[in-house]
């Protein structure tokens, strides 16, 4: 166990135990050590006593009467001690020494076993111990570098100052200084003109030490407290002696340290101001770009000019999808980033005591949100219009194609009919030919009646195309009109020919009934087959399973009629076979074709085969369409299931992330609901992250601990009972009381609470946000830079003048920040000004928004 010195404490450098451990066990070595300590401490005392016009020769003898000891304390403390006794008696000396010791004790120093009698008696150990205590208290203890103090602070200061120098590595206050380069580096760092550091050599410690000691004594007024030979010749130089000497360098250069501190403070403030100005410029540009994009996009979304073709409308739909996929998402991110930048900028301005940022007119976050809402409204209306237009064009294209098919079939059927009806062949025909013409005409009338429905369908389709505003309606109307006019002409010609044939009927004999029967039965059957082929080849557009099932049921009904139709076909063919048998049997002279109709068995068989081929094709088309509709139904159900899952999930995440999520419009479709909900979730998450980052920024900048921040958050949440993210006035008052604020229920308390509310709720909305609450608590619990502090820093750089010169700014500040100040500082107009003087006071107030910059 370590032994404790009764006088000096454990391991004091002057205690016998310490001396023995250091190798000073003999009386000779003790004497040598005390001589070295005596020289160092005497030199230190004289460096201060010279300021009072005196000095000491022998440290044990000259402090015995207490007079110079009291004078030394007055010089180094800057305070007046009690009036000393001027008597020569022992009691007077003890009284003076006691006054000095009492003053040392009043500074918080514990004097262990050091009494006035030992000092008066000239006890060397006690006297040296007392002087070391004074050095510790007044020369070393007040040294503070980055929250370290005394020995650690002095060591850190030395390390900082000598870091750029080669062969210098300060780790302690003994062997790190033996080569003398540490002392030279300290001098060169602050006064480079005094020492040519490049010529010093590490292997020549005597020259290095003597150079440092001589320069310090001659130019820095630091007495020579150490001996170069003692330091070089000692394995471990005395730590306290070197600390005492090094502390003299610290105090000698403290003025430069103050200037450096002042320059650092100004650089910090200017850097904050420059960063804030850049953030403001970035916000203005981003807001302008986003608003300009919205301004250009809304007219495009509000354009409801329809296109005439499906291809053009499909291109519009593709453009809209590109807008959704490619153009809008980056703008959503820009809008979110804009809000984040605005909140971050406001937080940094509050933390640096700057006035809040007010964007240009029309570029507030609320203005951007309003413009974005208008964009969303235009987008929703545009999408609905596009879908309706595409459905309309699909219907129009289908009707137009159907019109063309029916018109083409009708026109093909009517081709040559007018010429046929206008023939006067009955005038020279034989009786049999007349009867044949009459029967043929009757068959034509039957065929004409059968085509009446097709003409009516063509007219109905044309009417519907007109009602739906089909772009090619003029050509449709013209074609329909030609068909109707031709139909009327055919009717008139048919009536006229019928009357002519009936007038000559009496002149005619019989006509082959079989031909007539064939013609009469073949014509409707042929018309039925043509209608069947037309229906089987008709395109269909369905959107639901029910619609395709209806078409399939109708097709099954049609297939059920095929057996009867086949019987009819066989019967018609049987008539033709019977005609052929009669012709062959009776050798009838005919032209070889049925005079009553152009339909022949080959045509009937060909069309019948065509119908039989189209039936399975129709079956396959219906089956494929049915499968497609089933797949669509499955996809719709799958979408509904996923939407039912993702919708509540998004809503839950939005409620967790923020209580500020806007309700989605009820008119949105499920897909729109999910898409907009997803965009709002991303925005809410980004806002929450930004809020947390601002809280961290506030905590770090204001010096708030995590425990304090957690306490503030818990108190705020406790009184935010409706989870709205804000507190009412009474809730906020209760929250402050819970945190220890004394707000009495009287006029004074109400005035104090009104003052606090004007800080946290400057817009008088009656609500306090968490960010405003944190800013207020930060302001109450932490210190920040102020305009007065910045002015004080500039005054240090200016050498206590009321103005500062451009050269002084360039000498003390980094180039970019020096030029920043010079460009913005107004000329100094005071009576003590000189040419080129700059007003740093108005500049300092402008940095904090107290005047214009």
TrEMBL record:
Highest taxon above the source species: Eukaryota
All residue ranges annotated as the EF-hand domain in the record: 707-742, 748-783
UniProt KW keywords: Actin-binding, Calcium, Coiled coil, Cytoplasm, Metal-binding, Repeat
A single cellular component GO annotation: cytoplasm
Entry-linked SMART domains: CH, EFh, efhand_Ca_insen, SPEC
Domain Calponin-homology (CH) positions: 35-139, 148-254
Subcellular location(s) of the protein: Cytoplasm
Ranges in a coiled coil: 269-296, 434-468
Any one GO molecular function term: calcium ion binding
Predominant location category: cytoplasm
Annotated InterPro entries: Actinin_actin-bd_CS, CH_dom, CH_dom_sf, EF-hand-dom_pair, EF-hand_Ca_insen, EF_Hand_1_Ca_BS, EF_hand_dom, Spectrin/alpha-actinin
Similarity field: Belongs to the alpha-actinin family.
The protein's name in its UniProt record: Actinin, alpha 1
Gene source species: Neolamprologus brichardi (Fairy cichlid)
């Amino acid at each position: 166990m370590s032994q404790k010195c009764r006088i000096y404490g454990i391991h004091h450098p002057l205690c016998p135990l310490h001396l023995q451990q250091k190798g000073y066990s003999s009386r000779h070595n003790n004497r040598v050590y005390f001589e070295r300590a005596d020289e160092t401490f005497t030199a230190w005392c004289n460096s201060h006593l010279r300021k009072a016009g005196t000095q000491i020769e022998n440290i044990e003898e000259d402090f015995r009467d207490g007079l110079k000891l009291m004078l030394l304390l007055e010089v180094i403390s800057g305070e007046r001690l009690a009036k000393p006794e001027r008597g020569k008696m022992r009691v007077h000396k003890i009284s003076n020494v006691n006054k000095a010791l009492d003053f040392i004790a009043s500074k918080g120093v514990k004097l262990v076993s050091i009494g006035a009698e030992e000092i008066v008696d000239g006890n060397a150990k006690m006297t040296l111990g007392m002087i070391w205590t004074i050095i510790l208290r007044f020369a070393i203890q007040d040294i503070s570098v980055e929250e370290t103090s005394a020995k650690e602070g002095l060591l850190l200061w030395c390390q900082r100052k000598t870091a750029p120098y080669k062969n210098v590595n300060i780790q302690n206050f003994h062997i790190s200084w033996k080569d003398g380069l540490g002392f030279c580096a300290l001098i060169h760092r602050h006064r480079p003109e005094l020492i040519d550091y490049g010529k010093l050599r590490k292997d020549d410690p005597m020259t290095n030490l003597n150079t440092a000691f001589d320069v310090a004594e001659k130019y820095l007024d630091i007495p020579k407290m150490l001996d170069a030979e003692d330091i070089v010749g000692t394995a471990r130089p005395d730590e306290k002696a070197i600390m005492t000497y090094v502390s003299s360098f610290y105090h000698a250069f403290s003025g430069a340290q103050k200037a450096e501190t002042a320059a650092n403070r100004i650089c910090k403030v200017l850097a904050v101001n420059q960063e804030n100005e850049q953030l403001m410029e970035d916000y203005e540009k981003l807001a302008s770009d986003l608003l300009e994009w919205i301004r250009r996009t809304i007219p495009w979304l509000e354009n409801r000019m329809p296109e005439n073709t499906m291809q053009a409308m499909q291109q519009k739909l593709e453009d809209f999808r590109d807008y959704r996929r490619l153009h809008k998402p980056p703008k959503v991110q820009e809008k979110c980033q804009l809000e984040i930048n605005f909140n971050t900028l406001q937080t940094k301005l509050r933390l640096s005591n700057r006035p809040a940022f007010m964007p240009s007119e029309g570029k507030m976050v609320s203005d951007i949100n309003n413009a974005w809402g208008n964009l969303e409204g235009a987008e929703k209306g545009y999408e609905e219009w596009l879908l309706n237009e595409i459905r309309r064009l699909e219907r129009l294209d289908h009707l137009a194609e159907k019109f063309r098919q029916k018109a083409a079939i009708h026109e093909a059927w009517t081709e040559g009919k007018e010429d046929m009806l206008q023939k006067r062949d009955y005038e020279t025909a034989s009786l049999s030919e007349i009867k044949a013409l009459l029967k043929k005409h009757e068959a034509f009338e039957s065929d004409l009646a059968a085509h009446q429905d097709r003409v009516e369908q063509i007219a109905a389709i044309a009417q519907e195309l007109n009602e739906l505003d089909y772009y090619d309606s003029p050509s449709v109307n013209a074609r329909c009109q030609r068909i109707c006019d031709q139909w009327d002409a055919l009717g008139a010609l048919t009536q006229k020919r019928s009357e002519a044939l009936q007038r000559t009927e009496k002149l005619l004999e019989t006509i082959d009934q079989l031909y007539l029967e064939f013609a009469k039965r073949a014509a409707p059957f042929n018309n039925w087959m043509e209608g069947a082929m037309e229906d089987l080849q008709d395109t269909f557009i369905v959107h639901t399973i029910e619609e395709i099932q209806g078409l399939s049921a109708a097709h099954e009904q049609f297939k059920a009629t095929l057996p009867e139709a086949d019987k009819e076909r066989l019967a018609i063919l049987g008539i033709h076979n019977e005609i052929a048998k009669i012709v062959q049997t009776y050798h009838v002279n005919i032209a070889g074709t049925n005079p009553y109709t152009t339909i022949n068995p080959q045509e009937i068989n060909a069309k019948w085969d065509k119908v039989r081929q189209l039936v399975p094709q129709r079956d396959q088309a219906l089956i494929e369409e049915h499968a497609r509709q089933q797949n669509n139904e499955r996809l719709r159900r799958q979408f509904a299931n996923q939407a039912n899952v993702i919708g509540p999930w998004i809503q839950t995440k939005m409620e967790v992330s923020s209580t500020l999520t806007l309700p989605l419009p009820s008119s949105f479709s499920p897909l729109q609901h999910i898409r907009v909900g997803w965009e709002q979730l991303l925005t809410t998450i980004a806002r929450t992250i930004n809020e947390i980052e601002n809280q961290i920024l506030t905590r770090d900048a204001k010096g708030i601990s995590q425990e304090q921040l957690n306490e503030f958050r818990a108190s705020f949440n406790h009184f935010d009972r409706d989870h709205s993210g804000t507190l009412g006035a009474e809730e906020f008052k209760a929250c402050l009381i819970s945190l220890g604020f004394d707000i009495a229920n009287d006029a004074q308390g109400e005035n104090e609470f009104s003052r606090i509310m004007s800080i946290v709720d400057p817009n008088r909305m009656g609500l306090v946000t968490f960010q405003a609450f944190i800013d207020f608590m930060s302001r109450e619990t932490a210190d920040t830079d102020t305009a007065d502090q910045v002015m004080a820093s500039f005054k240090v750089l200016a050498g206590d003048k009321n103005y500062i010169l451009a050269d002084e700014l360039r000498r003390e500040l980094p180039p970019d920040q020096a030029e920043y100040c010079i460009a913005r500082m107004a000329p100094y107009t005071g009576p003590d000004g000189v040419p080129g003087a700059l007003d740093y006071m108005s500049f300092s107030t402008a940095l904090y928004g107290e005047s214009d910059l």
